[in-house]
Amino acid sequence: MQYNEKVLNEFFNPQNVGVIKGASGKGKIVSPTDREIMKIYITVEDDVVTNAMFQTFGCVGAIACTSVATRLMIGKTVDEALNITTDDILSELGGVLPENKMHCVTLAEETVKDAIASYESKKKGIKRATEDDD
Amino acid sequence: MEKQRVVYFDNASTTPMSNEVYREMIDAYGSVYGNPSSIYKAGRDAGELLAKARERVAKAIGAKPSEIFFTSGGSESNNWAIKGIAKANRDKGNHIITSAIEHPSVLESCRALEREGFKVTYIPVDEMGVIKYSEIVKAIGPDTVLISIMTANNEVGTIQPIRAIAELAKANEVAFHTDAVGAIGAIDINVKEIGIDSLSISGHKIYGPKGVGVLYVREGLKIQKLIDGGHQENDMRAGTENVPAIVGLGKAIEEVTENIEENNKHLRSIRKYFLKQVSTLIHNISLNGHPTQRLQGNASISFEAAEGEAVTVMLDREGICVSTGSACATGLNAPSHVLMAMGKEVEDAISTIRFTFSKYTTKEDIDYMAERLRKIVKKVRSISAIRIYKNKVEL
Lengths: 134, 395
Known about the structure:
The complex is a heterodimer of chains A (134) and B (395). Chain A has 134 residues and is α+β, with helices and mostly antiparallel strands. Chain A has one domain (5-120): Sufe protein. Chain: A (Alpha-Beta Complex). Chain A contains 5 helices and 3 strands, in the order αβββαααα. Chain B has 395 residues and is of the alpha/beta class. Chain B has helices spanning 19-31, 41-61, 74-88, 104-115, 133-139, 162-171, 191-194, 232-235, 243-258, 260-281, 308-317, 337-341, 346-349, 363-383, and strands at 7-8, 68-71, 95-99, 119-123, 144-148, 175-179, 198-202, 213-217, 285-288, 298-303, 320-321, 323-324, 352-356, 387-389, 392-394. A 7-stranded mixed beta sheet of chain B has the order 2-8-7-6-5-3-4, sandwiched between helices. In chain B, strands 9-10-13-12 form a 4-stranded antiparallel beta sheet, covered by helices on one side. The longest helix of chain B has 22 residues, at 260-281. Chain B is globular. At the A-B interface, helix 1, strand 2, strand 3 and helix 2 of A face helix 11 of B.
């Protein structure tokens, strides 16, 4: 099991680390097996994701995948961001993760979707049970 | 470009080879090519080297040379002992007792036997990683044929009460095997005095070569063969012996057992210095394992909110070699079975780094590591989705 250079480069130079105060949406996914945690915060203006930031408690692959996910989200419309796939994330990372790390990319994709779901709920005025304050 | 310094703190995974061991192996490679089973001189020369190595191993653990069998390593020795003793004694019963924190080669051998109808009890440990002796007492029954408990744990360094367990096994006429791979050279082990029936040793954890190990089998113990074939190893383990590696193991075990006190003194001072540096520089950490009943070369530390692999990969870029939990952990990012058995939270188990030192480790190595480790833990925590508030961690 070895990470390729693209994954390592993303890990050593993660983009968009941090929290957005008063974010339009907040996604949070916890991996059931090893309790890795991914959080993505987004700012949405006129239906476009203008900013995205993340925090990840997890391995090299998990950090690299969330970093890529936030980069891919920024500048996309909400609908476009919702269609970000695991393949989109992987293609930014040389196409592959070590076999036992493939779940990281699924977690990142789920966190993207959760951030958008949070934004949609907020827009409708529904407070989600999982929402925590920052 | 200046060559990067390498600081090796993963000696429980494997040790560098001692110069003396290397020299004896090179001599063996260079001058002796015969098959020890052959009748002519080239074969006899190889046979002599084999006999000398066997005597060295026997002396190191207080056994007879005829009770020493060379194998391909610790995993083979554990497989052989567990499967071989269980199957040879099946007429007596089908129950085995082991612990929850054994090496995978022990645990998987037990699982293989479970698939063949054996019953296995996995004894739990306390929060310091000490096997619960009273649970072994409770578990022993008329069907019990084998107890296998490691001498010292490879992940957290806790030394087990094998003397008491050996006595208990003997009183109940149950065979006692111990995986001593991590303990040889760190603690004095005399198999006769303690009452051990079978014991596993690996070459590459004691400054010797990889791919070679030993199984000690007490004279008279019933054990089935694992490898069938020729008549090598007193007709107990087939396959032409790896003579140079065996020579290396013989030298290595002689060196480590003759210098236990000196090495432990060095390791104790290194460990103390390491813990002082790390605990001064980094907050919200916890030390795993037993405070005194332990291997001096091991320091297992959980860094709250800083996932272990992320820290390890950043340390690697600085030339510092450590491992997360255990190098042998298998599965999909599964938290260490040892730390989980000790009752750690999953988050803490996956935020654990194992530092293991050797006779070559210096205080300068620790100085080189300490400040880099501080920065790296800080960086990983700055990315982390778990926030630390002084002494409180919030998910």
